[in-house]
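Handoff note, outgoing to incoming analyst
You'll be picking up this chain. Sequence as last confirmed:
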Amino acid sequence: MDDRFEWMATAAFGLEGVVANELRHMGIDARAEMGGARFTAPPEQAFEANLWLRCADRVLLVMGRFPARTFDELFEGVRALPWADFIPADGRFPVTGRCARSQLMSVSDCQAIAKKAIVERLKAAYGRSWFDETGDVYAVNVALHGDIAQVTLDASGAALNRRGYRTWNGEAPLRETLAAALVQLAPWRPGQTLYDPMCGTGTLLVEAAMRMADRAPGLTRPFDCESWGFMPAGEMRRLREEAQARFDPTRVEGIAGSDIDPQALELARRHVAQAGLAGRIPLRETDVRDVRLKADRGTFLTNPPYGERLSDRRACEALYRELGLLLRRHPGFHLACITSHPGFERSFGRRADKRRRLYNGRLECEFMTFFSKAKPAGRASDRPKEEG
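Most recent structure output, in case you need it:
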């Protein structure tokens, strides 16, 4: 087999370019497109992408793309792919599917037809009439969009947001991959002050600290591709060991947060510890109205309540006003937040300097950035401190 394959790092709407940039920083030439970033690379680089991508949902091996306007075209297109080059005789190959703007709109029928086509191809390759599927997992996905079928193998297994540190969730948790993207899109860079005044269970803070500590997000979790026979076991082991050696929690400073909910803070402390960052992120039980930092410059980054229910709207709008007052109390700070509330700026008291449309789950949101109005003056302290 050729040692370079086509891969797709999938991403939520609005984050395709972010993921493509992540891949480029890893030395992988990638092209952003709807739904993610496409790249051609040898197997070890695909494993590296699984290990280090912070904002992608999954890494998929692209088996093929072809027109599929009829079930016969779908069957023949899937059967033509070289399945025996990748799936062993005992491999498990569950098939999932999705259809959008396609003449073939029955997902269950497409799954069944694709499964049958793979079985027929493997029968011819292995000279068997039955497959027990007791071995390692090679999860197949058939995605139809605009009458074009893309058939992939899922190299990740569990979605990449499953970092392993967040085993307890509070109300309306922010997905880790989205939190990592907000950290990258915010006007904060490692070494500067970062503070979340409504930190909840701490996901934004942990993702920022992981970036600062050079901790690979996939460091402590497995990937399905690690058991695939054509993947280079020795090289994958070396990449994991290298990632472990790079992780340095002592680099983390200047990151802190607070919340008014003691139960959420208890979960945040557990998550910080499980990420290998115990003692590196100060957390306090503090109302946003009482947050006063001594640092001259920095960034507030937060995911405030959205007030989706009408009964919660007024309370949320009051919180947004407090965020506006928080920024005015800290004229050298920027503030960035994600919200689905259409009246956020009105309650905040100022129009955003920058905005970007993103999705938190299925909820359409705006990621808004409010830049500091202070004039540059002197070197700022990097460590956030609270008065009193």
